[in-house]
């Protein structure tokens, strides 16, 4: 691998102990990333330990220069859409502090051809959502001229970057973490619970060992097992990890009254106030090129629509597909084109006992539901926060992590092709109100996922805010180590 002269200069200065705070302005995170790959050549474990120590040394210098500015530090929350948004609580905690000033930096997903129109719509939805919530944001994409902004064109530059999505390749390269100057601190809140594996069982490199994981000052982990797995799978180990819980789940411990009640509307419109409320949430991953293979939609998607029709008086449904399902279902021939997909979605909306949710938060949806039929990986963990029965639709290619392998025994599972078994779940578990796995789910959640009570009755947003402040400013924090 070729390394730039600038990166080698950084290594030389660090080795000679001549690197100073003034030198931070000379470098970008890509220079630190070069050192990460250079140190991979050292014997097992040695390179990772050395890199972690270099990162810690540099982050101490960065923090010291930031605190000397004698002003509120700009925290840039980088989000690529409503699907990775973590809720507003952390933003308000930062805004109401004397130390931090938050800005949300909106990232435009970049893919090719027809799919890019969907990306633009998703970006527009994100902007409207932030406007509705009156949150301060900076666009990194010029929608009028269809152009990504460069770092230098941004009207405000963050001091601390808080990433909500690790997949840098989705966005403009100008905003990639390695193109940020080495005068910023990088942090990350994981996009989801680590529940999915690819058939080759190598997916942990995406959960724990992407470039972002290795460059971050702090990673706010979502469950207690993350640090142990990072020690195994991350080049630089787990020294930058702090267990805080998952802010997307905070609404289950507080309130989500700002969301409309889709089920409430359906019950009223269908004239069935006591109907069971069911979510159908198919995933998008169908073939090896998707890396993961979880979706069973090709086998049961149209049949599920007929099931909802059959039980119109007993049930109400929300069809909640993964945002990428439309693209994949057309690409792989389940639907001929977008028109046919739109007709399928319209058929759900046309049912008196069903509606569709294509984007947005789902806290209230989960809370008010009676069951979910699902082949999504992340919902395996997230739905445990409401302790309702889940039917996990299986296929042989699915792979599961240490966390999800512990969860699966507490879920109902059937082959995604077995429509008779799916209907039995609806009749015997949901309609009959017979849920023998309930106590096991409740006990598992309390022991492994209930961060709120495990961490002293604080939300994940409160824990993240407290960690940022303590690690940066308080006695015993970053500058004292």
Explain the overall architecture.
It contains 19 helices and 17 strands. By secondary structure, the protein is of the alpha/beta class. The protein folds into two domains: 5-245 and 457-480, Rossmann fold; 262-449, 3-Layer(aba) Sandwich (Rossmann fold), CATH 3.40.50. The strands form four sheets. Strands 3-2-1-6-7-9-10 form a seven-stranded parallel β-sheet. Strands 13-12-11-14-15-17 form a six-stranded parallel β-sheet, with helices on both faces. The longest helix is centred in the first third of the chain and has 22 residues, at 46-67. The chain starts with a helix and ends in a 9-residue tail after the last helix. The model has no long low-confidence stretch (mean pLDDT 92).
Secondary structure layout plus pairing:
Layout: H1 5-16, H2 29-39, H3 46-67, E1 73-79, H4 89-95, E2 100-106, H5 115-132, E3 137-139, E4 141-142, E5 147-148, E6 160-163, E7 185-188, E8 196-197, H6 204-208, H7 211-215, E9 218-221, H8 226-233, E10 241-243, H9 262-270, E11 276-281, H10 297-310, E12 315-319, H11 325-331, H12 338-350, E13 354-356, H13 363-368, E14 371-374, H14 379-382, E15 390-394, E16 399-400, H15 402-407, E17 412-415, H16 419-431, H17 438-448, H18 451-454, H19 460-472
Parallel strand pairs: 1-2, 1-6, 2-3, 6-7, 7-9, 9-10, 11-12, 11-14, 12-13, 14-15, 15-17
Antiparallel strand pairs: 4-5, 8-16
């Amino acid at each position: 691998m070729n390394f730039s002269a600038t990166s080698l200069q950084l290594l030389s200065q660090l080795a000679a102990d001549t690197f100073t705070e003034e030198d931070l302005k000379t470098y970008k995170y890509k220079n630190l990333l070069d050192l990460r790959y250079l140190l991979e050549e050292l014997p097992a474990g040695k390179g990772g330990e050395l890199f972690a120590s270099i990162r810690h040394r540099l982050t101490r210098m960065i923090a010291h220069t930031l605190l000397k500015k004698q002003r509120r530090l700009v925290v840039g929350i980088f989000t690529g859409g409503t699907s990775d948004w973590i809720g507003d609580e952390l933003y308000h905690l930062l805004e109401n502090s004397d130390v931090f000033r938050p800005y949300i930096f909106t990232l435009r997903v970049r893919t090719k051809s027809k799919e890019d129109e969907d990306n633009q719509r998703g970006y527009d939805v994100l902007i409207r959502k932030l406007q509705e919530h009156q949150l301060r944001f900076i666009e990194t994409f010029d929608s009028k001229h269809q152009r990504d902004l460069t770092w230098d064109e941004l009207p405000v530059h963050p001091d601390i970057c808080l990433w909500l999505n690790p997949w840098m390749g989705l966005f403009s390269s100008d905003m990639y973490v390695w193109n940020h100057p080495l005068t910023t601190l990088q942090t990350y809140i994981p996009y989801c619970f680590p529940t999915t594996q690819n058939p080759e069982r190598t997916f942990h490199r995406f959960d724990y060992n992407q470039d972002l994981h290795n460059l971050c000052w702090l990673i706010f982990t979502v469950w207690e097992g993350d640090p142990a797995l990072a020690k195994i799978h991350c080049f630089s180990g787990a020294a930058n990890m702090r267990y805080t819980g998952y802010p997307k789940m905070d609404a289950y411990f507080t309130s989500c009254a700002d969301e409309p009640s889709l089920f409430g509307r359906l019950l009223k419109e269908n004239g069935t106030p006591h109907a069971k409320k069911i979510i159908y949430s198919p995933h998008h991953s169908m073939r090896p090129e998707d890396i993961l293979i979880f979706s069973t939609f090709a086998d049961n998607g149209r049949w599920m629509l007929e099931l909802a029709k059959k039980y119109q008086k007993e049930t109400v449904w929300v069809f909640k597909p993964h945002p990428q399902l439309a693209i994949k279902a057309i690409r792989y021939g389940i639907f001929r084109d977008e028109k046919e997909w739109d007709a399928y979605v319209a058929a759900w909306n046309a049912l008196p006992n069903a509606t569709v949710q294509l984007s947005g938060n789902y806290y209230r949806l989960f809370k008010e539901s009676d069951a979910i039929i699902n082949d999504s990986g992340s919902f395996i963990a997230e739905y445990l926060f409401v302790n309702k029965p889940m039917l996990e639709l299986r296929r042989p290619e699915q792979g599961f992590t240490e966390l999800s392998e512990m969860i699966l025994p507490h879920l109902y599972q059937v082959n995604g092709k077995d429509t008779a078994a799916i209907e039995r779940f609806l009749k015997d578990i949901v309609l009959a109100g017979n849920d023998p796995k309930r106590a096991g789910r409740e006990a598992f959640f309390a022991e492994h996922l209930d961060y709120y009570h495990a961490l002293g009755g604080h939300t994940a947003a409160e824990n993240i805010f407290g960690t940022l402040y303590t690690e940066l400013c308080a006695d015993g924090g970053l500058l004292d180590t």
